[in-house]
Design brief:
By secondary structure, this protein is of the alpha/beta class. It has one domain: TIM Barrel (Alpha-Beta Barrel). The chain is built from 14 helices and nine strands. Strand 5, helix 10 and strand 6 form a beta-alpha-beta unit. Helix 7 crosses helix 8, helix 8 crosses helix 9 and helix 13 crosses helix 14. Bound molecules: coproporphyrinogen III (CP3).
Length: 347
């Protein structure tokens, strides 16, 4: 059985056309998701119910016809498994009642070394694999240690992340200790996802761009590097949003794909990322535009990536108020582009 398009593109193999999936494709842009979401007590209930998580994972494959599924879960399951439970507050986002503020607080936490706290996502992956029946590959995921550290210390999202960053400067040793524990937990979690059937994994450093080049290279990159080195079973996509300043360092990771946000031009990235595939990077707000303009911008984006070693995506997650037809227009434009534009070399 040949690899799916997405896996071929991740490995840098020649593809018939550019594959596409969309960050945050499962969720609030899809009416059947909203129906299920309203029927459960909380977001966490949905994440923790393997049958429902399976159902919402499959929705974007059926409705949007994307080239991959991504398991329905959240990056915050790792803090919870480490003993910092979260809640999702409507219209506000994640909230942690307890947070890590000082070296003493580390005694609250445990490193994840067994499936007891994360078994629900592993169960959901097995169900999805079975239901997908190899139609498209399944993406597993986790947050990168710095981004998880940021939630564990801030207790919520933030404009400045100054509580999280304060710890990097005041208690660097403690910060490294916590980042290492998150890293070990994340490697365990990703390996369990892969053993259950994930065909590729993406690690999200959503808050990389809050750091300077020096702090990113000191407090985020070494842990991303450990994760990339540990995951040898399937391709890895590293998405460090806002880390334009460390593209050269990202090129040295032992991973197959680098995700780009919309602020980085593909030809700029290619000066630094020499032998990896790239993913991205349409501005999610472009999908508020007219279909004609979405098509044009998408085609321009595809051309600038060059048609090979590219996985099409947005430059960050799709926003909840994006018109569904515009999301479909984006997917269809990518999938129609091959026949007229990409010359596949005969081998
Ligand atoms: O479709 C998919 O991408 C799979 C599922 C997925 C979710 N969260 C479901 C979700 C994935 C991959 C994530 C990753 C995630 N979660 C990230 C990294 C990606 C990024 O956007 O930078 C981050 C930072 C989080 C933390 C998080 N979870 C936030 C900040 C929020 C609230 C704001 C928001 O984006 O909705 C969540 C909740 C969340 N995670 C929802 C979904 C579908 C919305 C829940 C709802 O209201 O129904």
């Amino acid at each position: 059985m040949p690899d799916h398009l997405l896996i071929q593109a991740a490995k840098g193999e020649t593809t018939q056309r550019v594959p596409i999936w969309i960050m945050r494709q499962a969720g609030r842009i899809l009416p059947p998701y909203l129906k299920i979401r309203r029927s459960v007590k909380s977001f966490r209930h949905l994440v923790k119910n393997p049958e429902l998580a399976c159902e919402v994972t499959l929705q974007p494959v059926d409705i949007l016809k994307v080239d991959a599924a991504i398991i329905f879960s959240d990056i915050l399951v790792i803090p919870e498994a480490m003993n910092l439970p979260y809640e999702l507050i409507e219209k506000k986002g994640p909230y942690f009642e307890r947070t890590i503020q000082s070296p003493e607080d580390l005694s609250l936490l445990k490193t994840v070394t067994d499936l007891s706290e994360i078994g629900y996502t592993i169960e959901a992956i097995k169900l999805v694999k079975n239901e997908l029946n190899n139609r498209v590959p399944l993406i597993g995921f986790a947050g990168c240690p710095w981004t998880i550290f940021a939630y564990m210390t801030e207790g919520s999202g933030s404009k400045t992340f100054s509580k999280a960053k304060r710890l990097l400067y005041q208690h660097p040793q403690m910060a490294h200790q916590l980042l290492q524990s998150i890293t070990d937990s994340t490697i365990f979690y990703l390996k369990a996802q892969i053993a259950a059937g994930a065909d590729i994994v993406q690690i999200f450093d959503s808050h990389a761009g809050m750091l300077s080049k020096q702090t990113f290279n000191a407090f985020s990159l070494p842990y991303i590097r450990q994760i990339c080195a540990a995951i040898t079973e399937v391709p890895v996509i590293t998405f460090a949003k806002g880390a334009w300043f460390s593209l050269k360092e990202l090129n040295e990771l032992d991973c197959e794909v680098i995700g780009l946000d919309w602020t980085i031009n593909p030809d700029y990235a290619r000066q630094y990322i020499s032998n990896k595939s790239l993913q991205g990077n349409l501005d999610p707000c472009q999908l508020y535009g007219k279909p004609k303009d979405i098509q044009k911008a998408t085609q321009q984006m595809l051309s600038s990536f060059g048609g090979q070693s590219h996985i099409a995506n947005l430059g960050h997650g799709v926003y909840p108020d994006t018109p569904l037809d515009n999301v479909k227009c984006f997917v269809e434009t990518v999938q129609a582009w091959e026949s007229t534009n990409v010359v596949v070399e005969e081998s």
